[in-house]
Amino acid sequence: MKSKLIFLSLLFLSFLNIKAQQCTPTITSPRLGTMFSGSVVFCNSESETLTTTQTYASYQWYKQEWYWQSPNPNPWVAIPGATSQTLTINGTDDMLHNFKVEVTDGDCTAESPSILADGYAYGLPFMMVDLQPGTYEEVGPGVYNVCQGASVQLNNGFPGVYGHHTWFKCLPSSNPPSPTDPCIIAGATGDSYVATESGFYGFYACTEYCPDQCEMLSDAAYMQLNFGNWSFCNLSTGETKPKENSLSIYPNPTSQFLYIGKVSEKKYTEISIIDMSGKLVQQKKDHTYSEPINVSSLVPGTYMVVSKSADGKIYKNKFIKK
């Protein structure tokens, strides 16, 4: 009799465990987590089907607009008619939105963890520049006089997204570029390029995730480097004359997202955006160079960005909010 009671108890606990599993819905899809954990990344305007890993009696899918900081202030909105086990989303209408599903089954009701619908419009290529302190002078937006004998490393800000690159020393005549375009730098196909000669630098790159999807760096993001024996140069003694510390930011002007930082530092303890009156209008802690800063809520105008690196360096930049 005792053995029978133990068996029945184990059977009952097993039944409760099955019910508990049924009340923990999880979303999956073919490309979920392929590039970024918890995200579906679209190729252009392709669609993707989300589904739960288990079946339930009823479903209601919800959508929330993405926000750059946590907690997200945007509300979750029930999607009309989205009451089946699957939900089809696409890269045109649903990019930069979070999704979750609420399920019911008998006396249980539960919500799934959310996933993010990401996309390449969020990860368009941008270029970051690493200049050696004391060997350069910024003479205009994206224009630098550089000491002869120094070098400048140019980096794709999204090295994990893009694969094969075509680097240019002048603006190519077409997009996509002709394989015989004279602006092409022969053999330069990686995520970065070290420049030692004067030129107007940029690149064309194809995504690794969507090999047929390639993007040309915006003309405004190209970098003009003028190498020469400028008056501020003193490379022969190893001495340097640093100018105002600054980082390359992209795009500038911008209406929504701003990227700032450089790959060699990666992390910044604090990013502060200050208006021309000296008022702090936006701040972000623990910033990574490849993450966007959403400035869409700022009033159009000119702003100062003060960035503090992990090792205590302070950089100052200006940008224009359109």
Automatic annotation (TrEMBL):
Residues 1-20 form the signal peptide. Residues 249-320 form the Secretion system C-terminal sorting domain. Keywords: Signal. It holds the Pfam family Por_Secre_tail. The keyword Cytoplasm does not apply. This is Secretion system C-terminal sorting domain-containing protein. It comes from Chryseobacterium geocarposphaerae.
